[in-house]
Amino acid sequence: MEQVTVRVPATTGNLAAGFDTLGCALTLYNNLRFSRSDRLSFTGCPAEYQNANNLAVQGFASVYQHIEQPMPAVRIDISAEIPICGGMGSSAAMLAAGALAGNALSGAELPLETLLELTTRIEGHPDNLAPAFYGGITASMVEDGHIYTVRYAPHPALHFVTLTPDFPLSTHAARAVLPERVSREDAVYNCSHLAVLLRALENGDENTLAAALRDRLHQPYRIPLIDEYEAVRSLAKENGCGAFCVSGAGPTLLCLTRDASFPVRMESGLASMRHRWLLRDLKADQAGAVIREE
To answer: Is the pLDDT score of 145 beyond 90?
Structure first.
């Protein structure tokens, strides 16, 4: 095989109380084509990412390292819809695409479970990677070095409305503000909210979602890094959506609603904000990453 194309969905991680645990694949995609070549080269990405540190290359290389074979040179053509440093799983999408392409071009036939573990070693946590590979809503845990993932089906009427501002927020900066320790009270608070959240996502119960999307582990510390957060949250509530949270590490914000007319009302209100907020009316992607051999 000389060439392979991979389509990987965007993901929203954490879903508030599911810090580093929950993720959901969304109907927004990166498409990457990997072609054997005489040297490593790229199209479709900024010059600063056109090197061996590119996460697609790291995911690709992780497979060859695992099977103890030399990595071939490839040209990577990237068509990306997922914003970089936007809280929508851009890093996970690139890692997953690279690992799937490496698996196909090498003929290794590694299972998705192995690819998830290889890429999690690079990413550090599986909450975005698992839904990128599997689709749907996933919950993941790591025990004795092994990742256990279960999949949930969100209510089909739920709209995942993402609001991405015109400024980035690096995951490193968003993690730097988190406390090293939390109280037992806060741990119990998050455990209870996570348990209720999973069922509310399946039922599409917006009132319960609005309450369950609160947490004490990461959002209170990250919200001050997101300019206009309170104004956008208030606007969402005024337009009938109380199920609101930070997507991943931010700065993208997420509204969950069954009201198909909400995005139109919300977009009209966003025009009055100081920052430009890009609204995307998305659904949950159920397929996960898709590979096409050529």
So the answer is: no
Neighbouring residues of 261: CB distance < 8 A, sequence distance ≥ 6: none
Residues 273 and 289 grouped into a single domain: no
* pLDDT band for position 123 (cuts 50, 70, 90): very high
196-249 residue pLDDT tens: 999 999 999 999 999 999 999 999 999 999 999 999 999 999 999 999 999 999
pLDDT for 19:
95
203 and 174 belong to one structural domain: yes
Query: Tell me, what amino acid is at 186?
Result: D
- How many other C-beta atoms are found inside a 10 Å radius of the C-beta of residue 51? 10
Q: What is the CA radius of gyration of the chain?
A: 19
Same-domain status, 274 and 289: no
Query: How much is the pTM?
Result: 0.94
* Identity of residue 191: C
- Comparing CA positions, the residue from 60, 9, 63 lying closest to residue 36 is 60
Q: Are residues 133 and 257 in the same domain?
A: no
Average pLDDT over residues 114-137: 96
pLDDT classification of 101: cutoffs 50, 70, 90: very high
DSSP state of 2: -
State which residues form the domain around 231. Answer: 159-282
Report the distance separating Cα 245 and Cα 210, nearest Å: 9
218: domain CATH number is 3.30.70.890
165 and 275 assigned to the same domain: yes
Distance CA 69, CA 158 (A): 44
Number of domains in the chain: 2
Q: Which element (helix H / strand E) includes 34?
A: strand 22-36
* Cβ neighbourhood burial of 35 (10 Å; 0-12, 13-18, 19+): middle
Tell me which residue of 275, 284, 268 sits closest to 252, measured CA to CA: 275
